[in-house]
Amino acid sequence: MRHLRLIATLALAAATGTGGASASADPVWVVSQQGAELARIEAGTVAGRIPLGPAPVAAAADRAGRLYLTHPDGRAVTVVEPGKPPRRLPVPGQAFGLAASPDGAHLFVGDWSGDRVLRISAATGAVEGTAAVGHEPAHLVLDRRGRLYVADRESRQVSVIDTGTMTRVAVVPTGEAPFALALAPDEASLYVANVRSGDLTVIDTATLRARATVPAGRMPYGVAVTGDGSRILVTNQHAAAVTVIDAARLEIVATVAVGPYPEGIAVVGPRAYVANWFSDDVSVIDLATWRETARIKVAEGPRTVLAPGEPAR
């Protein structure tokens, strides 16, 4: 499982956090894989901690504030609901990438070793359908039309799935080892971080074709987009930095130093939050100055950052 541990981060823009906080501020949720913990960050500090099962990886949320987390080694999904203890759903496969329907009825789970995506009931875990994809499906993103985009890491492609019929409707070639995905706010573009080729593939979601490839730093791993869609933020594991790309010109306009081995990233209003795997903390970036303004300690091995914002798709 060492290869999974080294690529186990997703940067997700998701629905509201639990606890009734407004979407204009925190909370920000941080998943620590080695520490098996979900931390809630509010007002620049850790305001709560939820113990999880071993090695949680990916996270998603629905409009009701329920959080979902995958455990590849445990073949399971943990469900965290406001006011209730976490519950566990068994998954018939190596659960890795994850997306949730906005109403929380369905979960879409990438089976890392099975080259497929499962649609399961979020209430019972019952399998409702499957779709074949490429090798080692990583990040999953669901759009407002019900199309699911899947980064097929070892197939150098993104699979596009109709979630109503659970059929693959398109395959889009990318760079080497696509891992993290992010949709533009208007969903006209999908940004794909390619780990081994050091670049970003930009996919036109209307034509389902790649329209550009952009250098994105040393080992780009996580990707997020600012709320106005003007900037794309990409973590660079081997540079301890975040590369900032102008979305209109598709040019690098800034580089922000963060902690060692940055992985997941999420944007919340005027700030971005970056999970630093090697230093067990989260960097806070001011989007006006493009500078790191704080580091927040969390449990060992932070991989995923889940932030409030647009509803989960």
TrEMBL record:
One Pfam family here: Cytochrom_D1
Keywords: Signal
InterPro entries registered for this protein in UniProt: Host-pathogen_enzymatic-act, N2O_reductase_N, WD40/YVTN_repeat-like_dom_sf, YVTN_b-propeller_repeat
Gene3D superfamilies recorded: YVTN repeat-like/Quinoprotein amine dehydrogenase
Signal peptide range: 1-23
Annotated protein name in UniProt: YVTN family beta-propeller repeat-containing protein
Source organism phylogeny: Bacteria, Pseudomonadati, Pseudomonadota, Alphaproteobacteria, Hyphomicrobiales
